[in-house]
Amino acid sequence: MKVDLLDTLRHQNPIVFNISNFVTVQDVANGLNALGASPIMSEEVAEAGEMVGLSSAVCLNLGAFTQTQVEQIRKVGEVANQQHKPLVIDPVAVGAVAYRKMVANNLLTHFHPDVIRGNAGEIAALADVDWQAKGIDAGEGTGDLVAIAQACAQKLNCVVILSGPTDVITDGTRVVKVLNGTPLFQVHVGSGDMLSSIVAAFCAVEPDYFEAAQTACLVFAAIGERVAQATPNLGAGSFSVQLMDGLQLTTTAQINAIAAHQ
Ligand SMILES: Nc1ncnc2c1ncn2[C@@H]1O[C@H](COP(=O)(O)OP(=O)(O)O)[C@@H](O)[C@H]1O
Ligand SMILES: Cc1ncsc1CCOP(=O)(O)O
Ligand SMILES: [Mg+2]
Questions:
Q1: Domain membership of residue 15 as a residue range
Q2: How remote is the CA of residue 63 from the centroid of ligand 3, in Å?
Q3: Is a pLDDT exceeding 90 seen at residue 128?
């Protein structure tokens, strides 16, 4: 696990272009900025080419799109592929809303993502595995999470992150698990969206996207875990503030000291 990539990221300060959702856009911008990347957002399809051109990675969040925004997402995904910029997709709630799954599957015929990051309900839906997703949350299912993540990665020919209490990262064959984290991530809406954009930031500084994805998961989960451990009885509001501080101030040595992965 290349935790030192965090120092590279902070040194290079890569621009990450995000199409975010209106719910968590502030978390995504500030999370990236605190960690050491440079976020930029846009809702205008006419500037898609320039936006991708100035960025070192792109993250497309499918959390709350309109039909107009779907056109923008498709254009940005196509341009990212043409310009060979790393492309990360966050397929929010595709397991809970049939329309979203249809839109996501259609978008995936227009461009190829390098990494897909979702919870169990979302990754199961993209892999066409039976699962009871609950809105934006993972929901419940009985399937094997590693097998589901691998099936999704093989089907879509990309790296897949199936996040949750344990993050599963796979390229379809190789599998790494990140065991760090805190249940407080679940009481803050936007944890997953932040992680997806941070995955893109690591893809900007590491061309092996399987490596970039697992490092992003470890860095984010370990920082959350440290923050939770540092303050007893931390609640949802304080956690989100402390998490921002942690993203900015945590060192690679501190992450290595608690890193738990297989
Ligand atoms: N119960 C948990 N314990 C530890 N970490 C968790 C837990 N649930 C989620 N996480 C962490 O929260 C982050 C967001 O993942 P997740 O909750 O799966 O995304 P989403 O918000 O899209 O559903 C990841 O870093 C994941 O490791
Ligand atoms: C609540 C909500 N509704 C549409 S997108 C969104 C945010 C999802 O954020 P996350 O997947 O990071 O919890
Ligand atoms: Mg999510």
A1: 5-258
A2: 8
A3: yes
Long-range contact pairs involving 43-51 (C-beta distance under 8 Å, separation at least 24):
43/19, 43/69, 43/72, 44/72, 45/71, 45/72, 45/75, 45/76, 48/72, 48/75, 48/76, 48/79, 49/79, 51/17, 51/76
DSSP line for 30-69: HHHHHHT-EEEE---GGGHHHHHHH-SEEEEE-SS--HHH
**What six digits make up the tokens of 179?**
């065991």
Q: Which of 23, 161, 184, 195 to mutate to test ligand 1, by most ligand atoms within 8 A of the CB atom?
A: 195
Confidence of residue 232 (pLDDT cuts 50, 70, 90): confident
Q: What is the CATH number of the domain that holds 28?
A: 3.40.1190.20
Tell me the longest C-alpha to C-alpha distance in the chain: 49
In total, how many domains does the chain have? 1
How far is 170 from 147, CA to CA, in rounded Å?
10
Q: What ipTM is given for this predicted complex?
A: 0.99
Pairing state between β 159-163 and 87-90: unpaired
Alpha-helical (H) ranges within 108-251 are: 120-126, 145-156, 191-205, 209-230, 236-249
How crowded is residue 81: how many other Cβ atoms within 10 Å of its Cβ?
A: 17
Locus of tokens 């169990």: 120
Q: Is 192 in the pocket of ligand 2 (CB under 6 A)?
A: yes
